[in-house]
Design a protein that fits this description.
It is a single chain. With about 200 residues, the protein is mainly α. The chain has a domain of about 130 residues. It is built from 8 helices and no strands. The N and C termini lie far apart (about 80 Å).
């Protein structure tokens, strides 16, 4: 940047002129080992990348006092699971999260009003520990268990689902719990296969 007029300039300094950057003989190619080829890959634990997703952390805090929790539920767990849902919804539309994404996320699980007992019973189990950093897989299961067609609905329509169509939300929770049970069963089977047998002393 140019220096102020009051800064003295030595009279014996050479005048600076524009010089071109170093010339490259060949074009640059994205051929390094970690370069992505094509679009962003999709798969387990890869998430749903989107712009400025961390903004959801800021706009989620005003929801904390509005959460309707049942005994045994934690506001941190509700925020942890629903924040990730809101980020996924925002990424589907290719934009940063907004308050409407959070409204959809909390409404899908009945955290913003009266919810059916069947839904609160299932979410208490599914959201347990979702607010803890070490429970990333549980949080990912919650996010991936929400059908995309629900996330694409207008936020006002989703906000009314706990009272107008609670069966749809309960079915979503049942499918997610069934998937979680299968995952736990497969994990236990792997542990049994890989567990070392008892060594009998000679």
């Amino acid at each position: 940047m140019a220096q102020p007029d009051y800064v003295p300039t030595p009279t014996d300094d050479d005048a600076r002129v524009y010089t071109s950057p170093p010339w490259r003989p060949d074009s640059w190619m994205a051929d390094r080992p970690a370069e992505l080829q094509g679009r962003q890959p999709l798969g387990p634990r890869l998430g749903n990348p989107g712009p400025d997703q961390g903004y959801a952390l800021l706009i989620a805090e005003p929801f904390r006092p509005r959460l309707v929790l049942t005994p045994g539920e934690s506001a941190d767990d509700a925020l942890g699971g629903c924040l990730a849902i809101a980020m996924r919804r925002a990424s589907i539309f290719g934009r940063a999260p907004t308050v409407h994404d959070l409204t959809v996320a909390f409404s899908l699980w009945g955290f913003l009003g009266d919810a059916p007992t069947q839904l609160t019973d299932r979410r208490r189990e599914l959201f347990a520990g979702a607010g803890h950093l070490h429970h990333y897989m549980e949080r990912r299961a919650i996010v991936d268990g929400v059908p995309e067609e629900l996330l694409r609905l207008p936020h006002a329509e989703v906000a009314a689902l706990p009272s107008t169509d609670p069966g749809r939300l309960i079915a979503m929770a049942d499918a997610l719990r069934a998937g979680a049970d299968e995952a736990h069963a497969a994990h236990d089977t792997v542990d049994e296969v890989e567990a070392p047998g008892e060594v009998t002393p000679a």
